[in-house]
Structures are given as C-alpha cells and as structure tokens.
Write a structure and sequence with these properties.
There is one protein chain. With 253 residues, the chain is α/β, with parallel strands linked by helices. Helix content is 26%, strand content 36%. The strands form 2 sheets. The chain has a 7-stranded mixed β-sheet, sandwiched between helices. The protein is globular. It starts with 7 loop residues before the first helix and ends with a strand.
C-alpha cells in the first residue's frame, strides 16, 4: 500500500499553480474566520506551501504550520518572507506532533482532505491521538474532507489542466485509479513544462483514503472528542452527502 506522504515532494513545484486554477481561495475565508474566533494559538496540519497558513497569519492569528515535505516548506518559507507575516513553520510528522507540553493550541486545522492522505488506519489513530494531546481542553479540531472519492470515475491519461507559468507553459495529464478493497483513490500525475524548445516532464502519484463523515465521527469520539457541527460548505451550510465539502468541527472533551 502506498504511503500517503509519497509524491508530495515532487508535487511542490506545481502545487500552487494547480490550486490557483482549482481550489484557489474558495476555502480561505472560512479558515480565517474560524481562526479569528479562537482565543489562542492555531496549528495547521499539512501546511504545504503556506496557501492557508500565511493568509491566516496576516489576518492576525498566531499560527504554526507543520508539514513532512521539505520542498513544500521551502516554498512556504519563501512566501512567508515576501508576505512579512509572522508564522512558525515546522517540519515534522503529524502522527507524532513535536511540541512540548507547555505549547497548547486552541484550534487545529486539517484542511482540504489532509487526513485522507493517511492511508493506514493506525496512522489516522495516531494522528487523532496526537491532536488530542496538543489541544487545550475545549479546543477545536476542524477537519475538511473531500467527499466520497469512490465516485470519481476512473480514467487514463486525461489532460486536466493547461496554462502558462512564467515564460513557459504547463500541461497536467492525469489518471485516476481506484483500489476499492482498500478504499484508496490514486491520482497519477504527469506535468509537462515547456520553455521555448526545452521540455521537462515530472511524474508521481498521490494516494487518498476514502472516509465518510460517519466513520470519522466514530473515530473522533473514540479519540476523546465531541462533535460540535458537521457542515456542507464553507459558509456554514448544513451537511449533505451530495455536497462538495464535508467539514467536521469537534472539541476536545
């Protein structure tokens, strides 16, 4: 079984370009509002290139971002310097959060399917336990899930995105494979970048685990959380299984 962290180092040079054309800023205001409503530090799991970390920091939150990928964090640090915002970026494993006992958070953010990259059940259990350990009592754990990945139709070598970057062009060719027995969806990515007569091709795969709201609720409750709300969009709308977004807000008991 592929480990969920595999492929993200290779994804780093293309992550911001792709998200600017897909997710863009659709979820940013939600996370800024949520962070602003808390009284204390914020932790973002899987902060990547700082897509959310830095705008949340600029909105006034005291935020720490953690990620396993050094290439992702390198880009986040560059963006942080340019932004002149204040945030702490840490390289680490979310299954074993590297924070001392005196450092506690009022909010832990797990945005945009981040926990679904934990492809093994024991890794998810360890992460929920680690989050419980760093939250202060009554602290909020906010989880954003990508709905029902098995509905994604399998396809082979489809051109998903094209566009310009700098003085060149990029084309993303994508394949989707389902391992329904293990509940995994695998995205095979091929980025082709052209600058004049030069061409560079990068291939890697990203693996995500299917997990329903009901399954995540049970795991959260077992890990010592109570469910505050389940939302169906970034504006606080009610949960619907057909929604584009599933958001769970849980508090440390």
């Amino acid at each position: 079984m592929a480990e969920g962290w595999q492929g993200w180092d290779d994804y780093a040079p293309f992550y911001d370009w792709e998200n600017a054309q897909t997710l863009a800023r659709r979820d940013l205001a939600f996370w800024q509002r949520l962070a602003a409503a808390q009284d204390g530090r914020v932790l973002e799991l899987g902060c990547g290139t700082g897509r959310l970390t830095i705008p949340v920091a600029r909105a006034g939150a005291e935020i720490v971002g953690i990620d396993r990928s050094e290439p992702m964090l390198t880009r986040a640090r560059q963006r942080l310097r340019r932004s002149r915002a204040s945030a702490l970026l840490v390289r680490g494993d979310i299954r074993h959060l590297p924070f001392r006992r005196r450092l506690r958070f009022s909010l832990v953010m797990a945005p945009y399917g981040m926990l679904q990259s934990l492809t093994r059940e024991r890794d998810l259990r360890a992460t929920l336990s680690a989050v419980h350990g760093v939250l202060r009592r009554g602290g909020l754990f906010a989880i954003d899930l990508v709905p029902d990945l098995p509905r994604w139709a399998e396809y082979d070598r489809r051109v998903s995105l094209t566009g310009r970057r700098g003085h060149g062009t990029i084309r993303l060719t994508e394949s989707v494979r389902q391992d329904r027995r293990r509940g995994l969806t695998v995205f095979d990515q091929e980025y082709e970048e052209r600058r004049g007569t030069r061409k560079a091709v990068k291939r890697f795969s990203l693996t995500f685990r299917t997990i329903s709201v009901a399954q995540m609720r049970r795991r959260l409750e077992h890990a010592g959380f109570r469910i505050d709300a389940v939302l169906g969009d970034y504006d606080g709308g009610p949960f619907d299984e057909r929604a584009d977004v599933w958001i769970i807000l849980a508090r440390k008991r």
